[in-house]
Amino acid sequence: NAGVTQTPKFRVLKTGQSMTLLCAQDMNHEYMYWYRQDPGMGLRLIHYSVGEGTTAKGEVPDGYNVSRLKKQNFLLGLESAAPSQTSVYFCASSALGRGTDTQYFGPGTRLTVL
Amino acid sequence: AQSVTQLGSHVSVSEGALVLLRCNYSSSVPPYLFWYVQYPNQGLQLLLKYTTGATLVKGINGFEAEFKKSETSFHLTKPSAHMSDAAEYFCAVTGPSGSARQLTFGSGTQLTVLP
């Protein structure tokens, strides 16, 4: 039982390049989330999904797209990377979307955009 | 909108000393409150949470937190710090609808444990 995994762990991009971050969970959770973590700002929600085939915007969605074609996977895409997207990205999942639910986090992807 | 304030971005304690990490929240309705811990180069993991019922919540690794409605606080404590407690700690609160997608995190407190 691996929990939540993320690939890659590190990535360096040049401005304007694109990339996709992959998140996978093996807990059969319905809800999945993408956050970004910046120094002194905690975690901010980018996009989330309430189930296979669904996605929705979070607090800071601009410049990102997501897809959830399979229940266990949640992809985060950057179509044209900008230096402001330099951050650590975390994926999380929860069984349901209730306020009391625990979110389970992956180990993160450290992205640098030059 | 809800918000979380963590007082002190960095806290240092000696091994064996009391750990106290402060968290204050604002919410227009009764909140659900969480403490998550992030060890170096890892994702966040849940330490404890308050939903309803007993206001003193016990978590993993000897940590506990008390929900004080009158003070809008949810401070995290541990009687005796261990070197392995060195990590970043995040307080979080869910929003008015009680939905997980409205989980708001504080800016974090980095705990250093001195030998």
Question: What key phrases describe this protein's structure?
Answer:
heterodimer, A: 114 residues, mainly beta, B: 115 residues, 6-stranded mixed β-sheet
Give a verbal description of the structure.
- The complex is a heterodimer of chains A (114) and B (115).
- By secondary structure, chain A is an all-beta fold.
- Chain A has no helices and 11 strands.
- In chain A, strands 2, 4, 5, 6, 9, 10 and 11 form a 7-stranded mixed beta sheet that branches. Chain A has a 4-stranded antiparallel beta sheet with strand order 1-3-8-7, with no helix packed on it.
- In chain A, strand 7 (65-67) and strand 8 form a beta hairpin.
- Chain A is globular and about 35 Å long.
- Chain B has strands at 3-7, 10-14, 19-26, 33-38, 44-50, 56-58, 64-68, 73-78, 87-93, 104-105, 109-114.
- In chain B, the strands form 2 sheets. In chain B, strands 2, 4, 5, 9, 10 and 11 form a 6-stranded mixed beta sheet that branches. A 5-stranded antiparallel beta sheet of chain B has the order 1-3-8-7-6, with no helix packed on it.
- The model of chain B has no long low-confidence stretch (mean pLDDT 91).
- The chains are: A mainly beta (114), B mainly beta (115).
Order of helices and strands of chain A: EEEEEEEEEEE
Biggest interface pair, residues each?
A-B, 28 and 28 residues
**Strands of chain B, total number:** 11
Give helix and strand order of chain B, one letter per element, not per position. EEEEEEEEEEE
Fraction in beta strands of chain B: over 45%
What structural class do the secondary elements of chain A suggest? mainly beta
Query: Multimeric state of these chains?
Result: heterodimer
- Which outline of chain A best applies? globular
Computed structural class of chain B: mainly beta
Biggest β-sheet of chain B, characterized?
6 strands, mixed
Distance between the termini of chain A: 36 Å
Terminal-residue CA separation of chain B: 41 Å
| Strand count of chain A | 11
